[in-house]
Amino acid sequence: MTVAFDEMTGNDGALRPSYTELKRWLDEIRPDVLDYRRREAELLFRRIGITFAVYGDADSTERLIPFDVIPRILSSKEWDLVRRGLEQRTKAINAYIRDVYGRREILRAGIVPEDLVFQNPVFRPEMNGQKVPHDIYVHIAGIDIVRVDSDTFYVLEDNARTPSGVSYMLENREIMLRLFPELFSRHRVAPVENYPDELLATLKSVAPTTSSADPTVVLLTPGVYNSAYYEHSFLADKLGVELVEGRDLLVKSEVVYMRTTEGLKRVDVIYRRIDDDFLDPLAFRPDSALGVPGIMSAYQAGQVTLANAVGTGIADDKAVYSYMPDVVKFYLGEEPILKNVPTWRCREEEHLSYVLDHIEELVVKEVHGSGGYGMLIGPKADKNAISIFRSKLKTDPKNFIAQPTLALSTCPTCVEEGVAPRHVDLRPFVLTGRDRIRIVPGGLTRVALKKGSLVVNSSQGGGTKDTWVLDS
Amino acid sequence: MLSRTADNLYWLSRYVERAEYLARILEATQRLTALPIAYGGSSNEWESAVATAGCTNAFFAHYGEANEENVTDFLAFSTANPSSIRNCFEIARTNARAVRTALTMEMWDAINGTWLELKRYGNGPTSREEFMRFLRWVQESSLRFDGSAYRTMLRNDAYWFSRLGLYSERADNTARILDVKYHVLLPANEMVGGPLDYFQWSAILRSVSALTAYHWVYRESLKPWLIADLLMLNDQMPRSLASCYENLVRYLDDIANAYGRQGPAQRQARSIRTRLENSRIDEIFQRGLHEFIGGFIADNNRLGAAITDQYLV
């Protein structure tokens, strides 16, 4: 495996310009001060109550995601490239979903295989031929990006359903501003605090045409037991909109209302953080107690906007992922600005035999898996695990893709033994409204705190960092 | 605002108030039982504490005997008692989490900080001294929460609903103390007189933190009918039934004005307040203290149900 690119010192150990001040600061600051600040940050997070739940972890229903106090820095030039790539990719994703539930040109052109769409459990036949307000499906996208050298950023994963993590982006920045004002004064860091305003503007812009001039937006949460509940309440608060649960809403004559102390009030836009499956017990899972009976009928009548739209999962599946460069070219006639990680589709025979031959070098992922589960990291796996995956691959090749083990870039990080490089990724958030696309500079940087680990997921011991985009 | 949010705010305040009340009862009982028998210390004070907390049946479903250890555990720390101090804070914090957006940072900090600190006390105190510190801490936590609400919340429906919860609970608590202790306030017992009743009376006042207030208001030694007057009809006394109802009427009116509509809750609250205003303590004693208080508790519950029907569902 090649040596990872370090964002502070590159491949050759020479200090990169955007990190000059940070390096100087790291050299100046006493380890005990840094440690003290680290503990202070943890205390702050705990007091704010910014926690997440790990399912199946009975012992601790609320846990903190470790926060690393050393920021990750991107120059304005680097960010510019990423930003343009994100805009392009999100446009293509929206065009793709619209097409799949509409004219299906991309399927007829044979660019994406039909069975990949129609046999996908997240494909929603209810959306066929269904018009959505302003033709926008993915209003909020979280696109996971990794970096392998000074110029190359790959998209690792598209999240087009209910991407989470933006509260950490915002809280991380607040905490950093509180703990390290001096370090900020040495940099010109682009602010992220306008994200809630941008989100609200986006959501209001996509209200149904039948709604009033000042549409009512709500955030729909599955409730306090959801692992991202903190984020839901945090965002509702920043947006200044009601945080509703399914039982707070009801549908009458295809209009959605919320129950208030003053009676029923019409709802126009629902930023829903609840999966398609649970949205409407009449349309989807009948056992869902989290949803709102009849909400799909209101949606289909064009009386309410759901953000994101129903059925967007067809665009962020790991199997579809490998076709994304072609999707970009098909709809926009442009070369993708952000590349995909080279991906073998095990559904194709040649690819499968390559994967079986090189399994020790590859990362094999389940097409529908998420959160770092259901995957095999070839170079780290023992013989037993490999043979299990081999037979899985042979029985159900369609269910898998494989990618080379990437040397994800590293950033200086506070760990037990001091400051050391750790692998990172980046999740920026892309907002698509009727008027334009909005992206707040930066995003959520996740860091694998274990030495050598490439798994950044918070459910598996990953942490987060503040992400600084320097103003030029 | 969402009905569910109003409901959560209402119960959040109720539970914090209840935790404080339980701490006061335990503190007063602890004091009373520390006295020599001749001064009113008696073994059934713990049973009386359970009755004052309104959970006699639940208690005896878990314990055979109402002694210090069992009652302390049940009222303060037990997870089996839905209204133990621990569960009150636990439920309050769950409610607070569900309505984070309706709370100010200071309120959240107060309740979340309390919840975090609660873990420090584990499954109970190791000594009486520690237990007393715990009871002080409970009262301070409640004061902090209430103070944060008072000083930081916008004066809108969120504030008003949280006040309704507080005063409904407080009225219920004061009435319960009177309900359990009414016999020591009755004239028959006054004839017996003596130190036993004196310390019982002061314990009643202490459990509603009114001992000093009593002396300022009446400038007399403890007299049972004056204690009853203070706790029921004196609107200067913040825990009296009259004062609670003055507040309930006021906040219900605020809500009605903001929403442009009066309803059953407003009418009921006003009628209870009028009854308190028109009552004199000697008449109440004549007609039956116990009956009056029993009637009040039932009325107060009915008002709670009316508030729920009108706004919270």
List the helices and strands and how they pair.
The complex is a heterodimer of chains A (472) and B (313).
Chain A: H1 20-28, H2 31-48, E1 67-74, H3 76-100, H4 105-108, H5 114-118, E2 140-147, E3 153-159, H6 166-179, H7 181-185, H8 195-205, E4 217-220, H9 229-239, E5 242-244, E6 249-252, E7 255-260, E8 263-266, E9 269-272, H10 276-279, H11 295-300, E10 305-307, H12 318-321, H13 324-332, E11 339-340, E12 344-345, H14 349-357, E13 362-366, E14 375-377, H15 383-395, E15 400-404, E16 410-415, E17 418-427, E18 429-432, E19 437-439, E20 444-448, E21 462-469
Parallel strand pairs in A: 1-21, 3-11, 4-5, 4-9, 9-10
Antiparallel strand pairs in A: 2-3, 2-18, 6-7, 7-8, 12-15, 13-14, 13-15, 16-17, 17-20, 18-19, 20-21
Helix pairs in contact in A: 2-6, 3-13
Chain B: H1 3-33, H2 45-52, H3 56-62, H4 68-77, H5 85-98, H6 105-118, H7 128-152, H8 157-185, H9 187-192, H10 194-207, H11 211-218, H12 224-232, H13 241-259, H14 264-277, H15 281-287, H16 289-312
